[in-house]
Amino acid sequence: QDQWELPLTWISGTLYAPRLLISRAGRSVTIKCYYETTSANRHGRKYWCKESTNRHSCQTIISTNDFIHKDYEGRVSMHDSPQSGILQVTMAQLVKTDSSNYRCGIGNKNAYGFYAGVNLTIWEGKVCVLCLLVCVLVCVYWFCAWGFLG
């Protein structure tokens, strides 16, 4: 299997996505974000952005208004299905530096509106199944203990 993900979680009752995705360097990962099919959501700008270290800003990687960041051209794509409320983002040719916190969101500004946070972790080389299990258990614990606090 090339991709592992933690179960989906609701964010603000409007948008949800996997909290954690794990993949290997050189592979592709597909993120599915689900949103309520209100008129505002169907017609709103959708985006995928990479959070800054301090999480106060988020650099757009791709959005539904035909923007693709130059560093990701040729290896990121987005497909929005407004009638079904599914936004799908695919990142290809993954590298270790793609490991980060991302946001899948709806709105004119990345810092406002609704978004779901996704942690993308890229492994190099062979995946240690025990390491993966420990990582998932820690993330589940973190979500159960702190996930609803912010």
- CATH architectural grouping: Sandwich
Shape, principal axes of CA atoms? globular
The poorly predicted ranges are: 5-12
Q: Which series of helices and strands comes N to C?
A: EEEEEHEEEEEEEH
Quote the distance from N terminus to C terminus.
Answer: 31 Å
Number of strands: 12
CATH homologous superfamily heading: Immunoglobulins
How many helical elements?
2
Portion in helices: 10-25%
Which structural class fits the helix and strand makeup? alpha+beta
Order of neighbouring strands in the sheet with most strands: 1-4-12-11-6-7-8
Query: Radius of gyration, Cα only, in angstroms?
Result: 15 Å
CATH class wording: Mainly Beta
Give the rounded overall mean pLDDT.
83
CATH topology annotation:
Immunoglobulin-like
Quick rundown:
With 150 residues, the protein is an alpha+beta fold.
Salient structural properties:
150 residues; 5-stranded antiparallel sheet; Immunoglobulin-like; 7-stranded mixed sheet; globular
Give the SSE layout.
Blueprint: E1 3-5, E2 8-11, E3 15-18, E4 20-24, E5 29-35, H1 39-43, E6 46-51, E7 58-63, E8 67-68, E9 76-81, E10 86-91, E11 100-106, E12 114-123, H2 129-146
Organism: Podarcis muralis (Wall lizard)
Domain Ig-like: 7-121
Subcellular location: Membrane
Any overview of this molecule?
It is a single chain. The protein is an alpha+beta fold and 150 residues long. It has one domain: Sandwich (Immunoglobulin-like). Helices cover 15% and strands 44% of the residues. It contains two helices and twelve strands, in the order βββββαβββββββα. The protein has helices at 39-43, 129-146, and strands at 3-5, 8-11, 15-18, 20-24, 29-35, 46-51, 58-63, 67-68, 76-81, 86-91, 100-106, 114-123. The strands form two sheets. The chain has a seven-stranded mixed β-sheet with strand order 1-4-12-11-6-7-8, with no helix packed on it. Strands 2-3-5-10-9 form a five-stranded antiparallel β-sheet, with no helix packed on it. Strand 2 (8-11) and strand 3 form a beta hairpin. Residues 5-12 have low confidence and may be disordered.
